[in-house]
Write a structure and sequence with these properties.
Elements (H helix, E strand, L loop, with lengths): L2 E4 L9 E2 L1 E6 L6 H6 L3 E3 L4 E5 L6 E6 L2 E3 L5 H9 L3 H5 L3 E7 L6 H5 L8 H17 L5 E13 L2 E4 L11 E2 L5 E2 L6 E3 L2 H13 L3 E2 L7 E2 L2 E12 L5 E11 L6 H4 L3 H25 L12 H5 L8 E9 L6 H14 L3 E2 L2 E6 L23 H9 L9 H18 L1 H37 L13 H4 L30 H4 L6 E3 L7 H10 L12 H4 L3 H17 L2 H5 L6 H14 L16 H17 L1
Parallel strand pairs: 3-7, 3-18, 8-17, 8-18
Antiparallel strand pairs: 1-20, 2-19, 4-5, 5-6, 6-21, 9-10, 9-13, 9-16, 11-12, 14-15, 16-17, 17-20
Helix pairs in contact: 8-12, 12-20, 13-21, 18-21
Bound molecules: adenosine-5'-triphosphate (ATP).
């Protein structure tokens, strides 16, 4: 019977942290990207910094297991981040390497590469064969066999890339918590050239398409599974199975930028949803034991269950791009990578004894386990076993996807609706202006009565000297023509607050006045309070109001934003039907608004509009 044996190479340490590497790709050949300079840069082989959009005078520093700058070769990435995990696979443990990051940031380049610059996948497989040859030659050793499977997760369907068909394969878990895909083709390999022969045509089966951001954008998550089974030549003929997952994730997408519509938009909804679930899984794992980890909420996380907080040695290569147009995606990807670093896996060896071989139902190990249409009993049981384990394609999951897609469509097609409601809106705006004047008058009166003073000056950070580095400040140069604005964030990971980042060894670095994100800079300079608390949207008029009243009103507004229904949201000043829906959509993707200023991340809410929104709503809620 299959059993778990503590990993011999783990020693006293039975856990393995997810190793996180970040790879920065070179600037692509667009004129304005080149002239603007990068928004992120490496400091050394483990540290990097990115300009902070919340305060343009600062940069945020990150520390990872490895940082590969734009000059790092494919060989360099492989040797430092991937090769070290391969011996575990030959020793019967699971390992996974996955490339994460926004669309166009270089995931496929890293994993697959090109004939001239082969990536992690061909290099890893070649290395597996090389190690098998070396170890297989040892006289008292083991016999090895290597097999491959290759699949993609496209629109939440698991599709076999070695035997393409439209059949959505099920994902199962056996009683030893091995993740299995019954029906998935498994091809035995004798050599690397054997692998090449099967892999190259299968890669062409992967779903790709041209988007505005990437001519050959991966529309699916591709998972290559290399299974190494080794059997001891001498008694007791132990047999161990190690699996290596090599995963090229589809990129998180902002559809206002990709220009996706129709089928591309639907694909994008599925991609973003699965990456959002990945983010939730990471959050749940970081939250400690006890809480439910939502592995089953997407096929991707179900498949990676072994690799995240499970039994594998995992390496995540986060790909990022240097251009300002990628700024928010880069920031999100770095924050996601930083929290993934905290996950601890528990590797073990999967071992069976091959002698004696009883004629009983064998554990679902080895090639037999994944034969087509043999549905293991445990799997059937598993679907009903735990009440907390939701069936995979639950209606709620589908409705979330539908809602996401509908919201994205709404964003794309909102212009028509706008035209229809324009007259109505004009009338409302007029009424609002009058009401606002009235409230401003009230506020001035209150100010005279309370004798309120002016807002304090911006405080200087005492961290300046602590984190100053020798490099010149990260500076955005003016772009030659149409400057690329950092996109508003729509990626799946909510940026952490700077204060949250610090325990992760990330520090805010104050650099000398930079000209990056000029719009943001104006905002932060204008609104930063003496205690350093961000307070975008506050104007001098607000500082004249009673502080506790303001605080209470802000609390009321954020409560409506976080818990309000569509109707409640529309009850806020300056929030119409479209914005209310966008707010609901944002909540769906990102969770709660941690502060009112997060509203700037909503489509169409500029800093100016936010400021006017705050004015109208603060005064309105005080007037009630
Ligand atoms: N390190 C690098 N050196 C040179 N070119 C690179 C590098 N990384 C990426 N590129 C180029 O950038 C472009 C986009 O890269 P790639 O297709 O790998 O992105 P991706 O993250 O896989 O995108 P998607 O999620 O849309 O599939 C490609 O033309 C690729 O060749």
């Amino acid at each position: 019977m299959a059993q778990r044996v503590p990993a011999a190479d783990a020693g006293a340490r039975r856990t393995s942290r997810v190793r996180v590497a970040v790879r920065l790709r070179p600037c692509l050949d667009r004129e304005e990207d080149r002239t603007e300079g990068p928004c992120v840069r490496g400091l050394d082989s483990q540290n990097l910094e990115i300009t902070n959009w919340r305060n343009a005078t600062e940069t945020v520093k990150y520390h990872f297991d490895a940082f590969h700058d734009e000059r790092t070769t494919q060989q360099g990435v492989f040797l430092s981040s991937v090769k070290p995990v391969l011996p575990h696979v030959l020793g019967g443990q699971n390992a996974s390497v996955f490339a994460y990051g926004p669309t166009g940031a270089g995931k496929t380049h890293t994993m697959l590469g090109s004939p001239d610059h082969p990536g992690v996948i061909p290099r890893a497989v070649r290395e597996v064969f090389s190690q098998v040859r070396t170890r297989g030659g040892e006289p008292e050793g083991w016999d090895y066999s290597v097999a491959m499977s290759y699949l993609e997760i496209y629109n939440e369907k698991v599709l076999d890339l070695l035997s393409p068909s439209a059949q959505d394969l099920p994902i199962r878990e056996d009683k030893d918590h091995n993740i299995l895909i019954p029906g998935l083709t498994q091809t035995l390999l004798q050599s690397f050239s054997d692998f090449d022969r099967h892999f190259i045509p299968a890669s062409l089966n992967r779903t790709t398409a041209s988007t505005k951001l990437n001519q050959r954008s991966s529309r699916s998550h591709a998972v290559l599974l290399i299974k190494v089974v080794r059997t001891q030549r001498a008694p007791p003929h132990r047999r161990q199975t190690g699996k290596l997952y090599l995963v090229d994730l589809a990129g998180s997408e902002d559809n206002r930028r990709t220009g996706n519509q129709g089928i591309r938009l639907k694909e994008s909804g599925a991609i973003n949803l699965s990456l959002f679930t990945l983010s939730k899984v990471v959050d749940a794992l970081n939250g400690g034991a006890g809480g439910r980890v939502p592995y089953r909420d997407s096929k991707l996380t179900r498949l990676l269950q072994d690799s995240l907080g499970g039994s594998a040695h995992a390496v995540m290569i986060t790909n990022i791009a240097p251009e300002y147009s990628y700024y928010f995606d880069t920031f999100s990807a770095l924050n996601f990578a930083a929290k993934s670093k905290l996950i601890v896996n528990k590797p073990f060896v999967r071992e069976t004894l091959t002698v004696p071989v009883p004629q009983v139902k064998r554990a679902r190990e080895g090639p037999e386990a994944e034969r087509p249409r043999k549905r293991p009993k445990d799997d059937r049981k598993q679907n009903t076993a735990s009440p907390s384990a939701a069936p995979h394609s639950s209606p709620s999951e589908l409705s979330v996807l539908d809602r996401l897609i509908a919201l994205e469509k709404l964003m794309m097609g909102s212009q028509e609706k706008d035209r229809q409601t324009m007259q109505q809106s004009r009338k409302e705006i007029q009424e609002l202006k009058e009401r606002q004047k009235e409230y401003e008058g009230k506020a001035l009166l209150m100010n005279r009565q309370t004798g309120g003073g002016a807002a304090g000056e911006t405080s200087a950070s005492n961290q300046d000297s602590l984190f100053r580095n020798a490099l010149p400040p990260l500076q955005r140069k003016p772009a030659s023509s149409a400057t690329t604005k950092p996109r508003k964030q729509q990626a799946v990971v909510l940026p952490l607050q700077v204060s949250q980042l610090q325990p992760l060894q990330q520090q805010v670095v104050v650099v000398k006045k930079t000209s990056v994100c000029t719009k943001r800079k104006k905002l932060s300079e204008q609104h930063e309070e003496p205690d350093g608390k961000e307070n975008a949207g506050l104007s001098s008029w607000e500082s004249h109001l009673d502080g506790s009243l303001v605080e209470r009103s802000r609390h009321k507004i954020i409560t409506v934003l976080n818990t309000g229904t569509l109707k409640d949201l529309k009850g806020l000043q300056q929030i119409g039907d479209k914005k209310a829906k966008l707010i609901l959509g944002w909540r769906e993707i990102h969770g709660h608004f941690t502060k009112l200023e997060d509203l700037i991340q909503i489509e169409g809410i500029t800093e100016k509009r936010f400021s006017s929104f705050m004015k109208a709503n603060l005064l309105s809620s005080m007037g009630k």
